[in-house]
Amino acid sequence: MDSMDTDTPDQSNRDAPVRLLLRPVRPMESGVGLPYAPENWPKPGDIWSWKVGPRVGGRGTFKDRYLYPPKHLPGLDTEMTRRGNAFRSRLSLERYIRRAFPKADVRKFFASFTWTIPSTDGMSQKQCLVPVYSSDEDPMHENGFDNVVCKAGNDKCRSLMPPSDTKPLPAMPCNICCSEPSFCSDCCCILCCKSISLEHEGYSYVKCEAVVSEGYICGHVAHINCALRAYVAGTIGGSIGLDAEYYCRRCDARKDLVPHVSRFLEICQTVEYQGDVEKILNLGICILRGSRRDNAKELLNCIESTVIKLKCGTSLENLWNDDAPTIWSDFSDIGESKGNDTLQSLQDVTPIEPMPFNHEAEMHKLEEEIRDVLKGLRGAQESEYQIAEARLYAQKECLDDLYRQLEKEKSELSRCGSGTDADSLMTNVVKRLDQIRREVTKLKEMEEVAKGFGRTPRGILEEYFHLNIEE
Q: Which residue spans adopt a coiled-coil conformation according to this UniProt entry (predicted)?
């Protein structure tokens, strides 16, 4: 830990803030203990941890900082420590201490560390003097002139990120989509208007950096998946005629996506979960598929071979220990002038080797497939059983009704003598017997399903069970 000098205020100036020599930190950095979190409070050995957000104010200090107390402290399940038991403001922390530790010296507590944290991107010097405030002022909420907000209300907007060393050209003012009250060209997709994600170095979106006027670029962003669905990315024929490119709907400019995809495996080497790795690489496949350019084809082959290795059971650790990273590092420098040389060197130096076969992984995959098939078969059989049960019992009820009517008509016939009424009743009895014989025959045909629906004649299934069987 860097050395820290503390100027302790004397008794005549107790309200003066203690000044600590602080080390500027990077956005999203975290740590434990001094100088940005208390130590040995409330008991010896208790150490608090801290974290900062991405936003930096005009004074070079972080707008967002979080303080995490030891888990054993009382009352941490209250509303004061929402979002992962982190105190997000000095005022909420002060309220908690006064409630949970009424005898504690709050002023002395805050004097033991600093709430304000300087940023490496906001300060020119490596170390700086920053006051530790002991008043009710909350340094996390800067004055109005320091507040920079996103038009879409996105606290992770790129416009709120600390400025980089290289200053890009500003975006051209837009009076079309940007006239919408909740649309931000820095973080809202021009196609779906939803926020982009900076996860995994922002692989999932593309930014149009075409120069549209002197000193200005387009600056609009789009999800790559949205662009693929809208047929403005990838390889598209027709009047657009894209080849592994992106077409910006705002300025009609085209952007080569091969350099963008060439970063994917380098990004994947920092990803911990295989599902995320496959998601990133599959997006690259969607972008490059169908391209007629040699560099895009070579890059596509490299991505597909990597995905195959993953599906064959190669672990991420072993995958990155292969020769693939060397191949991808060559692709990361693809440009207009270097692409052909890089591809030629790949063809000469790194021939494609046979893929190793992982027997256990393949058997596990087949076992999963068989389990899914049997599960589906069981479900289909249960469904067929329920259909057959309902229709067969319905036919039984029909025959039961017919037999009851026959008994009734026979009884009426026995009580009636001769004459016209007797002849009419006899006719009804004969018709009823014929109807019963037809329904009994129908039931016998329906009982063919005992062999299974697959071996039952198609006509029976369609007529008696109302199933439409395709050829």
A: 363-446
Between the alpha carbon of residue 294 and those of residues 204, 284, 303, 342, 346, the distances in Å are 24, 16, 14, 11, 12
> Is residue 185 one of the residues assigned to a domain?
yes
Four-point Cα dihedral 74, 76, 79, 83, nearest 10: 170
Q: Are strands 65-68 and 128-132 parallel, antiparallel or unpaired?
A: unpaired
Question: Which among 224, 256, 288 is the end of a domain?
Answer: 256
Q: Distance (Å, rounded) from C-alpha 187 to C-alpha 194? A: 8
In a domain, 452, yes or no: yes
Element (H, E) at 400: helix 359-415
What tens digit of pLDDT does each residue of 143-177 get?
333 345 677 777 777 776 665 555 677 887 777 77
Structure tokens at 62: 């972080």
Domain assignment present for 366: no
Q: Note whether 223 and 196 are within 8 A (CB).
A: yes
Residues 157 and 141 in one domain: no
Domain shared by 86 and 101, yes or no = yes
Nearest to 140 by CA among 42, 29, 65: 65
Do both 453 and 395 map to the same domain? Answer: yes
Per DSSP, 154 falls in state: -
The tens digit of pLDDT for each residue in 248-307 reads 988 889 999 999 999 998 888 888 888 888 899 999 999 999 899 999 999 999 898 888
**Does the N-terminal peptide bond of residue 351 adopt cis geometry, omega within 30 degrees of 0?**
no
**How far is Cα 80 from Cα 88, in angstroms, rounded to an integer?**
9
The SS3 of residue 67 is: strand
State whether residue 152 is helix, strand or coil.
coil
Give bridge partners of residue 128 from the DSSP assignment.
Answer: 22
Q: How many angstroms separate the CA atoms of 385 and 408, rounded?
A: 35
List the Cα angle 200/201/204 in 5-degree steps. 75
Domain boundary among 225, 256, 287: 256
Tell me: do 269 and 352 sit in the same domain.
yes
In the chain, the number of structural domains is: 4
Q: At what angle do helices 324-331 and 339-349 cross, to 10 degrees?
A: 160
Residue-range definition of the domain harbouring residue 14:
6-146
Contacts of 310-313 spanning 24+ positions with Cβ under 8 A = 310/274, 310/277, 310/278, 310/281, 312/355, 312/356, 312/357, 312/358, 312/361, 312/362, 313/358, 313/360, 313/361, 313/362, 313/364
Residue with tokens 């994600």: 197
Q: Are residues 77 and 15 in the same domain?
A: yes
**pTM of the complete model:** 0.42
In a domain, 40, yes or no: yes
